[in-house]
Structure formats: structure tokens, C-alpha cells
Amino acid sequence: MNSEAVEQAAAVPGWFQDNLDLLVGVPLRILLIVLGALIVRAVARRAISRAVERLLQPSERENAPNRSARGPAVLQRDASRASERRQQRARTIGSVLSSFTTIVIVGTALAMILDQFGIALGPLLASAGVVGLAIGFGAQSLVADYLAGMLIMIEDQYGVGDVVDLGEAVGTVESVGLRLTQVRDINGGLWHIRNGEIQRVRNDSQDWARAVLDVSVSYESNLETVYDTLEKTGREMRQDPQFEGILLEDPSIWGVQSLDADGVVVRLAVKTAPLEQWAVTRELRRRVKESLDAAGIDIPFPQRTVWMRTGDGTPA
Description:
Elements: H1 2-18, H2 20-56, H3 60-63, H4 73-77, H5 79-116, H6 121-138, H7 140-155, E1 163-165, E2 170-176, E3 180-185, E4 190-194, E5 202-203, E6 209-217, H8 223-239, E7 252-259, E8 264-272, H9 277-294
Helix pairs in contact: 2-5, 8-9
């Protein structure tokens, strides 16, 4: 018994020596993999945070007094709203990038750890690929929504406060998410639109807008007098302090738009600040009416021909 114990005791150092890599090398490599993953994740998150900070900083065009930067007029005049919009985009994009980076780093680290235990990654990756393919087919619309939402935010196609036309949904954007966009229409209804279903966007809140007014005058009116009256009305409106910064240029006469049965249609157009085109059109319409009345220019009314017959049946 003593000889067997001695032999077993002598075999212990040999066993440790034979399994030294399993006892020390594998845990050490796993520890290094975990530490490396943590360091890479920390560096990636720091880089993403810096990118988000740059996104939050207003551009020089936004700080300029006479800028025509992108974004709705309410954001151009209110720095707090512009900052809120940038923060929303930055938080969403930063969160998505951080989550994606974490998933990639953790997945890579797990694969390296499994490789240290001698587990074959080929069949595992093949199985994961099949499962991922099945999930992808089942969630195509969800993936499309998230990708479209990400692109909408990165490209800044629209944001909270913008007035947009997304097809059936026309109104003011109240929320922009990765999957859904919420739009409040003029009747107060709240539309929930999946981002993947948005095929085209008309944004009435970016750069500038245009107020277009069609004025109908009688055929007896002198067009040169009409042009002069409309131009004078537009210049006076732009010089009004109430519309300072709203009318970006003097109104221009585009000429005769059409010859209707009731009169001649003359088009007047002016470039305005975003979201101000409707208010400008209403005020311009009122002033044009007063100017035409003062100049003695008639606004035509519908013309109708009435046939009357005499007692013998002949037209009168």
C-alpha cells in the first residue's frame, strides 16, 4: 500500500505537467479574451460618444444670423428646439450603434472562448445561420422598418416639428423612432406610420418655402396696371416690420397663368421662411384684394348666358 501511495504521489506532478495548459493556459487565455473584449467595447463606446457629441454641436450655418440651413423655421428661430432635435437623433443613433457594437464584440469573444474549450464552431455557426435566416424571413418588415428609420435619422430627412407629406398622412411630425413615425394631421388625428412603408417624403419645413397666389382679373383690365399693383403690394408687404425675416425676397410676377372663361389669371409668387407660406398667402391675398379695389381693377365674377324666349318661341 505504501508503494502504491508513493507511485500515485509521484504521478501527481506528471499529471499537472501534462495538463498544465488546460489548468493554467486556457483560463489565462479566456481571461485575456474577456479583458480584450472589455477594452475594445470601452474604446468603441468612447468613439461613439465623441461622434454623438459632434452631432450635438450646432453647425456654423445654424449659428449664422442669415442662414438657410436645413430644418423647420421654428427650429431656426428657436435654438432650444433645434438642440432638442439634435439630441433625439444623437441619442437614438448612439444607442443603436452601441448595441450593435456590443453584440459584435460579445459574439466574437464567445466564439473565441468556445474555441479554447475545443468546441467546433462550424456546426454551431451553421445552425445559427439557419435560425437567423428563418427569423430574417419571418421579420423582413421589422428589419426593413429599423433600417429605414436609421437612414431617416442619419440623413435627417425630417424631424420633430416638421410638416411633411408621407402619402395619406399629412401633418406635423410628433415623434421619429427607429420603427415608427408619428404624424399629427390637421384634424388632430395621430398617424402611426411604419418607416419601412414610407416610399417618399415631402418636407415643407426645410430651407425655404414659396407662397403662390393666383389672382383673377377681368378681361377689360390693363395687365401692366395689374402687374404694377401686385408688385407694389408685394414690396410694401416685405417692408412691413411684421414680416421681417419671413419674406426672403421681393414677390415676383410670373405672368398670365391661364385664360379662364371668367377672367385672366395672373400668378404672384414669393419665397418665404419655412412653414410661413400659408400665413403669407392669406395676408397677401387680403392686401391684393384691397390694392385691386383701390386701383379700380375688377375681380371677375362667374359669367352666365341666359336665354329667354318670347311668346312666339323665338329667342330674345
